[in-house]
Structure formats: structure tokens, C-alpha cells
Amino acid sequence: MTVSDFTTTLLVDQTPEEAFRAITNVREWWSQEIEGGTSQLNDEFTYHYKDVHRCKMKLTEVIPNKKMVWLVVDNYFNFTKDKSEWKGTKIIFEISGKNNKTQIRFTHQGLVPQYECFDICSNAWSQYIQQSLLKLITTGKGQPNPKSFSKME
Questions:
Q1: For 128, phi and psi rounded to 5 degrees?
Q2: pLDDT for the residue 91
Q3: Beta strands across the sheet bearing 44-49
Q4: Contact assessment for residue 1 and residue 107, using Cβ atoms and an 8 Å cutoff
Q5: Domain 6-139 falls in which CATH fold?
Q6: Fewest CB atoms less than 10 Å from the CB: which of 24, 90, 122, 123?
Q7: Which residues contact 130 (CB under 8 A, 6 or more apart)?
Q8: Residue 68 CA to its chain's centroid (Å)
Q9: Residue 98 CB: number of other CB atoms within 10 A?
Q10: Average pLDDT per run of 10 along the chain, which is 153 residues long?
Q11: Residue 149, pLDDT score
Q12: SS3 per-residue string spanning the chain
């Protein structure tokens, strides 16, 4: 892991089990447009946001209450020259105890400042992790992208 990979950390009072359960509930903190499994080894799911972003993730490592790794199998952005910038990168959640609290370290390994999407993507991840996932863990209610009912967006 290089220093330039995007990383953000949460510290919560909830247990590692509660944090892990929230992380695997991707529809409740990232997007209600998630299709597929999001909690078991080798699960695959797709995400899409309007015509702006689509990606396919595969869970390549699942250690309950400790770690989860998603491999970005495919990706499309409509706002970058390289439409597949995330392809082959990894999204890593590491859960550990720290001073009677639970620490969640989120790393998007391969999301680096050289990427055209770095600013937009790191800001989006910060919002999803620092606000939506945090609220899901601490209050039981995240702030995911809503399911769109119109495919004409």
C-alpha cells in the first residue's frame, strides 16, 4: 500500500460486529442502486449512479468483524478521459479495537492523486464513509443514494 492511496478512518463506540454488519449493508450507506451480494466471499455486486458512474465489485477477502476487500472488476465514468480508472483497484475496510472503541480504516488502494477522478472520488468516499457509514453504524440509518425510479435521468 502506498502513501498516496486514498484513506480515511472512523472511530466509533459500537462493536467490531456492529461496524462489520453496517459495512456489509452497502445499500444502506452507499446506494440503494446496489444489485448483488455484499457480504460473502466471492459475492459480486454492481453499483450505478445515473449515467455518471457504474462499477462491478467482487468480494475477494472477508474476515468477519476484521476486514473486507472489494476488487473493482469493471468501472465506467462518464466524466474522465480514461473511463475505467478504478478498474483493478481495491477497496479495503479494516476493523480493529483502539482505546475501547472500534476503528474502521477505509482505503481505496489504487485511487491516487494522478487519477483524473481523484478529487471527485476522494470527496465522495469521504462523504459516504465519514457521514453515511458513520451514521449507519452509530444510529442505524445511513444516507445512501436513493433508488431512482426513472431511467431517463
A1: -65, -40
A2: 98
A3: 6-12, 101-109, 90-98, 67-77, 53-63, 44-49, 35-36
A4: yes
A5: Alpha-D-Glucose-1,6-Bisphosphate; Chain A, domain 4 (3.30.530)
A6: 123
A7: 8, 10
A8: 10
A9: 10
A10: 81 97 97 96 95 95 98 94 91 95 97 93 96 98 83 43
A11: 55
A12: CCCCCEEEEEEECCCHHHHHHHHHCHHHCCECCCEECCCCCCCEEEEEECCCEEEEEEEEEEECCCEEEEEEEEEEECCCCCCCCCCCCEEEEEEEEECCEEEEEEEEECCCCCCCCHHHHHHHHHHHHHHHHHHHHHHCCCCCECCCCCCCC
CA max distance for the chain: 49
Query: Which amino acid makes up residue 12?
Result: V
Domain boundaries, the chain: 6-139
Report yes or no: 6 and 121 within 8 Å, Cβ to Cβ.
Answer: yes
**What is the sign of the dihedral through the CA atoms of 12, 16, 21 and 26?**
positive
